[in-house]
Each structure stands twice: as structure tokens, then as C-alpha cells.
Amino acid sequence: MTVVPSQPPGSEKDGAAAVPAARNGGPTGDGADPASATGSGRFLARAALVTAALSIAGSLLGLVRDQSLARLFGAGSDTDAFLVAWTVPEFAATLLIEDGLALVMVPAFSMALARRARGEAGDPVRALVAATLPRLCLAFAAVAALVVATAPHLVRALAPGLPDPGLAADCTRLTATCVLAFGLAGYCSAALRAHGRFLAPAAIYVVYNIGIVAAMFLLGGHWGVRSAAVGVAAGGCLMVAVQLPSLWREMTSRTPSPARTGSAAAQRPMQLALVAAVLVFALCRQSQVLVERFLASSLPSGAISHLNYAQKVAQIPMTLSLMVCTVTFPVVARALADGDTERARKRVERDLALASCVVLLGMCAVIACAPQMIEVLFQRGAFTAADTAATADVMRVYALGLLGQTLVGALLRSYFSAGRPSWYPAGVMAAGIAVTSLIGAATVQVWGVAGIAAANAVGITVTAALLLAGLRTTRRNTPYGVSIRLPQVLAELAAPVCAAAVATVAGAFVASRLQSPVAGLAAGVLTVTAVFVPLAWALGAQGPASALRSVRTVTRRLTHGRIH
């Protein structure tokens, strides 16, 4: 399917390849090794800042999108129908942008860049693109056509109790186009990040949400909720368009090296087991959505909508916490390609500490200020006070699983950074889904949507614990993966968890004292921050200190690399 090194990464014991490219220094230009930029602490800090800014912008526009959906169509049967169709872009985003394709292609591009740095004949990066992109495009187009053809059957399988399956089928056909668009967008993102280019990939959800919001307001009066599905299709095309100029520059800026004797055989097909392992994991992870919507379809109208709005708001801290891992994933992959497993381990442990502190701070704010947050964001138009109360209750329960969600996203990269297959993540994710399904089926009739949210939190926490345990058993000093020091990591997690419990109680108390939802939200968030940050620092958490160092680095002169 593609071209990767014929020898294991790091197998060269004495040549230049044994030295991580990030240590070789030198500015990154059209003829320089991108790893010298992506390995620079200052470059990573600035890349993280750019990614954070655009991630926040994308998340805010996602809130605008959800606010527009709530205002125009409320939380009734029409919105439920669209949200069933929304399953298609949710699956496509996970498989083709966030997890699946990225976990396969970022290591593949990192290995191709390592081969290019060793001066192999031709251009391994262009060879990789030529071998993979046409076949992937055909596969994406075929899946999109299959979804269009089977839309009514998919709707019946996903939500058998839906009041208007015909509307959901129409929306599903419209959103099916995102399979091809998201596939191309994910491919471009993987290639650009491996090259140390983060601006365009970070902007994809900005333009995506702009497309959806514009379509709803322009077409909503005539097409109703179908306009949101049209927006999904338009937004997917914008995701590709925003990245193409940067990728074209990367693909055309290199002159292939002349052929050398004995260098033409350093190729072998990509392991299909790797692709299968990644796809099975991503499918298992995203099947949480299927379980939730299947169970919620048996509840009164609006249950799916309440769960959706709660998830969208609660997941913002998780998205921001994982931005660091998105930036550093190519660094870990390149370190393993060069055989430097110790550098990869240190990077992963730092990322876990920082990501955990960020998501726990956000989780405190979500739980403490849930009613005020939902009222400020959504309570207008067709979204009533009853919808606010129901959504806030669900969101508080769902937020309990945010740390587990973040740890799963961060740890997953450690299993696939070396570009080698591992079935363990898929197995533990399947175990987590089984826990979610069993608990959800047992509690949905008693606790309603809150029971579904609780099942989600327990299931993903079980998965995170198993992934942590799996990395502990990996061999140390091996070029095939990353091991972490589990006792140190658990001790690091304990400090912010304790700080989060105290900050949540304090924030909820302050927020409830004020009548105005805006004032209550502001006071609650400030209280949570004022309690969590110094308390976590006092307890010895390394995340706040790491964040402060990152902020300081972006104020200094950037001596390595470019972000374009």
C-alpha cells in the first residue's frame, strides 16, 4: 500500500541516523530537516500556542454552531433526526482526522522524512503520497456512496425509536459526502504535521463550523434542519481547501536525490495489520456514540439533543488538553524512527502531566457552573429553561469521564508512534464499550439520559486505566514503542485530582450565590481557577509549571523553524 523503511527504526547503530534529527540543529527551511524544528522546545511552544488559539476559535465556533442549531430548531424531533445523521461526520472525524488516519500516516510520513534525511534515492515522501493517496481516495468515495445507498437502514439501526426516520435518512445522505472530504483533510493534516506545519491543520475546524453555521442561516428557512446537513458537506470541502496550499508547497519544494547504487530496495508495503488495528480501535471508540444514541432513542423526545449539547460543551476542555499531544505526536514518532526511546518517553510523560491539569481545570468549571453555562450558551429561541436544566444535569455527569477521555487520547499515540501494529488498544477499548453498554442498559430506564452519561464516564475511565497498565508492561529501551514510569505518572495525576475536588466545591458554591447566570458563570470560573492552580502547584503537580514554561518560551525569539 505504501513505502516505509525496510529495517526497523533505529536499527542503524553507528551512522547519523542513530542521532535524533532534532538534535542536529540548524534552521528549518526548504532544504532542512523538519525534525530540527519540531524537536525545538521553542518551536513546540509556539506551535502549541498557534494550535491552541485556532482550537479555541474552532471550539467557540462549534458553540456558535450548536447555539444556532438550538435557536433555529430547538431540542425536539427534528433536531434528534439531524443528530442521528450527525453520527456519520462524528465517525468520519474520529476515523479520518483525529485518530485513525493520523495514527497511521503521521508515523509513516515521519519514517519517510527520516529516510529522506539519510539521503536515500528519489524522494521517499513523494513516493509515500503516490502509493497511498489514490487508493485512499477510491476507498473514501466508495464508503460515501455506500452510506448514501443504505441511509434508511442505517437510521433504523442507529435509532429504531426515532419519530421521523425519513428526515434523518435525508440528512444522512447529505452528510455522507464528508467521508471523502474528511479523509482528504485528515491525510493533509497528517502530512503537514509530520513536516512541522501546524497552522493549516489547526484551522480546519474553524472553516468547518463556519460552513455549517452559514448554511443553517442561509438555507434554514427553506430546508429546515436539512440545511445543517448541507453545511456539513460544505464545511468538509473547506477543510481540504484550507490545507492544500501548504501541502502543495511541501510536496514541490524538494528536489529528488539522484539514484545511488544499492539504495533502491529500501521499501516494503505498509503492514495491513497496523491499518486494521488502528481502524478497529477508532471504530470501537466511536461506537460509544452508537450505544448512547441507541439507548436514548427509547427515551422521550429531546433526550438525544440534551445528551448532544452536554457533550459538546463538556468536551471543550478535553479538546484543548489534547492540543499539546497533537503538536508533539510527530516529535514522538520521529524520536522512535531515530531510535531515541528515552526522549519519546520523557515527552509522553510531560504531555500526560500537562494534559491532565488542563482537562481537570476545565472539568471543575463544567461541573461547578453547568446550569449557568448552558443558560448563557443555549437558553433562547426554541431552547427552553426545562432544556437547560436537563442538559446541565447530564453535562455534570458526563464531565466525570473527561480525565479518562483525555488519557485515552494521549496514551493512544504512544502505542502507534513507532508505526507498528498493536491490538491491545482495540481490546481494552472494546472492554470499555462493553462496560458502557452494560451500565447504560441497566440505568437508562431509571436515571434516563444521566444513566447513559454515567455509563460513558465509567467505561472510558476503565479504558484509560487499562491503557496505562499496558504501557507499563512494554519493554524499556526498545525502538518499537514507549514505556512510561507508571508509579510516577499516577503520583503526578493524584495532585491535580485532589485539587480538582476542592476547586469544584468552591466554584459551585460561589456560582450558586449569584442570580445572574453571566455573573454566576464568571464568578464560578474565576473561583475554580483561583483555587485549582495554586493548590495543584502546592501539591506538587508538574502541569502548571510546564504550562508556565511553555508560555515563557513563546515570548522569546524563535530561533528554529516556521509555522505556515
Automatic annotation (TrEMBL):
It comes from Streptomyces cadmiisoli. It comes from the Bacteria. The chain crosses the membrane at residues 43-64, 135-154, 174-192, 199-219, 225-248, 352-374, 394-416, 423-441, 447-468, 489-512, 518-539. Its main location: membrane. One of its GO terms (cellular component) is plasma membrane. It is found in: Cell membrane. Keywords: Cell membrane, Cell shape, Membrane, Peptidoglycan synthesis, Transmembrane, Transmembrane helix. GO terms for biological process: lipid translocation; peptidoglycan biosynthetic process; regulation of cell shape. GO terms for molecular function: lipid-linked peptidoglycan transporter activity. It is a multi-pass membrane protein. Residues 1-37 are annotated as: Disordered. This is Murein biosynthesis protein MurJ. Pfam families: MurJ. InterPro entries: Lipid_II_flippase_MurJ/MviN (IPR051050), MurJ (IPR004268).
